[in-house]
Amino acid sequence: MPPFPAYLRTLLLCAAAGGALQAAGVPLGWMIGALLASGWLAARRAAAVPRLARPGGLVVLGLGLGQTFTAPVLGAVAGALPAILAGGLVSILAGVAVAPLYRRIARSDARTAFFAAIPGGIMTMAVLAGRAGASVPAVTLAQSLRMGLVVLVYPPLIALAAGGAADAAFTAALPPVAPGGLLLLLAGGAVVALVGERVGIANAAMLAPCLLAMALSAGGVLPSAVPRWMVDAAQVAMGMSLGERFGREGLGGGPRRQALAAIASAGVLVLLLVVSGLVLGRLVDLPQVAVVLGLAPGGMPEMAVTAKALDLAVPLVLGFHLVRTILCNVLVSPLWLLVKVILTRENSR
């Protein structure tokens, strides 16, 4: 275990970097600043991030996101479910489309390229890759690099495109902050997160508290709103954790060809999904910028907090990423078996 001064140094540097970027008007400045500072320290083997930083931040973020699902908002998200399902399928198929590019550059096997290219989240794809016999380190590297790049690139681009506009159908009126109610809400979030982890729910630290807050908000019994400063602190915690992993695995780990393949395939994937988001948003008459963020090949917590920071249809964006996570858990492994059969037939000709 690192000494306490190492933890304090990491926290102070990450908070200072995040605060500086936030003061400079950088979208998602708290998270991006913490990510860059923690990544810089990790590349020098000097980062010390508490193990509870990310799960603690995810509990707060889950409650903060779930509180936006009032009954009218929940109805609007349910009405958009066909588009959300289509977006999840498009994201997976776009990953399949860029897998050959990753394979060519990295000179990897088709199995590893498949799981490295699909935007299903670091942990989800690492687990699925391991079950399929793919290279877990290569998949983790690719997913980590893409995650870091998306977190750095998407917020400023989305902020420019959004123009500060919010969509009324996905905007909720929240109750005031009540200290007693807030403590009760945080305690409940921690409990359901632990229970969710025990029963094996994917990303339980965020998802279980989010579902709790959604139920309370939709039922009109939310005891308190989650204050903005807590969400900002959660951004710092998440940025610290992501930066440590990004600096350790993404910048310094793995063969150079794998890193290059991950960056190149991520760039093409981003272009495909930005175009797909614009087209889908136009076809289904949903806010296009929110749909683009919903299809972004980043993690659910990071993209949801981006939407919250920009006040951009948070429930809709969260719905896209939640459904994609579910679809990846259900469809990616069978899809690989189908791709494997096709590749085998082509090679036998």
Automatic annotation (TrEMBL):
Fetch the Pfam families from UniProt: AbrB (PF05145)
Q: Which residues form a coiled coil?
A: none
Q: Which organism encodes this protein?
A: Roseomonas nitratireducens
Q: Which residues cross the membrane?
A: 20-43, 55-74, 80-102, 114-133, 145-165, 177-195, 201-222, 259-280, 322-343
- Which keywords describe this protein according to UniProt? Membrane, Transmembrane, Transmembrane helix
Protein name per UniProt:
AbrB family transcriptional regulator
Domain of life, per lineage: Bacteria
